[in-house]
Design goal:
By secondary structure, the chain is an all-beta fold. It has one domain: Sandwich (Jelly Rolls), CATH 2.60.120. About 0% of the residues lie in helices and about 55% in strands. It is built from no helices and 22 strands. The strands form 4 sheets. A 7-stranded mixed sheet has the order 1-20-17-22-15-13-14, with no helix packed on it. A 7-stranded antiparallel sheet has the order 2-3-4-11-6-9-12, with no helix packed on it. The model has no long low-confidence stretch (mean pLDDT about 95). This is Pirin family protein.
Length: about 240
């Protein structure tokens, strides 16, 4: 079963320097029937204006992934880490018992990134930070593993039974994914226009995928995707 969520129907926020699209309930956008999908709690499509950003603020008991779509994201935290990530790079924080961090666009160009929060499978783990700079070509024409709770599956290890994958394909190209019937997936059309199992997706749209074995993603225009494979919600 495929349920398409159009970006026009998602939550929105505009703070002047920050322009956000909320896939799930977040901040001022509250929708009680859209709190999460499996262990996926937050996906915010955030756009920072030049020199915009958040100062030091706390998180706890959440696995947080930032996937940079365009521009540069600068991170600092109370563990002493500092980094600047660019298009296609990934930042990861296991907030665990508590972490403080800031995130900024320190450039003269706009920044777009996906801020992803995943519910952890254990409470109050030791806080941890990491980032990974993937070669862009490693996601072209295939699903590239980014993060997973399964040891050895992806460069980034998270505290949850979930696989995070990204893929890039050209017009009229197709990506296939074999989804375990006991699991479900959340797919986002980050850029471009395409279809998932015949259902149309515009840039910014998403799809909840349940009770489906073969997932077929076809690009109508050059396309960029992220997918989350996770344990199915209990009936």
């Amino acid at each position: 079963m495929i349920k398409v969520i159009k970006h026009e129907n998602m939550g929105r926020s505009d703070r002047g320097w920050l322009h956000s699209l909320f896939h799930f309930s977040f901040a001022e956008y509250y929708k009680p029937d859209n709190i999460k999908f499996g262990a996926l709690r937050v996906v915010n499509d955030d756009r920072f204006d030049p020199h915009g950003g958040f100062g030091m603020h706390p998180h706890d008991n959440m696995e947080i992934i930032s996937y940079v779509v365009d521009g540069q994201l600068t991170h600092r935290d109370n563990l002493g880490n500092g980094s600047r990530l660019e298009r296609g790079d990934v930042q990861y924080m296991s907030a665990g018992s508590g972490i403080m961090h800031s995130e900024y666009n320190d450039t003269n160009e706009p920044l777009r990134f996906l801020q992803i929060w995943i519910l952890p499978d254990e409470k109050n783990a030791e806080p941890n930070y990491g980032d990974h700079r993937f070669d862009w070509e490693d996601r072209v024409g295939k699903w590239m593993p980014v993060a997973s709770g399964e040891e050895g599956f992806a460069p980034i290890r998270i505290h949850q039974d979930m696989k995070v994958l990204v893929g890039v394909i050209g017009s009229d190209e197709t990506l296939y994914y074999d989804l375990d019937p006991a699991r479900q997936a959340y797919l986002i059309q980050i850029e471009g226009e395409g279809m998932v199992n015949g259902n149309e997706l515009d840039a910014g749209d998403a799809a909840e995928i349940t009770a489906t074995r073969e997932v077929s993603v076809r690009a109508k225009t050059p396309s960029h995707y992220i997918m989350f494979d996770m344990a199915a919600d209990e009936a």
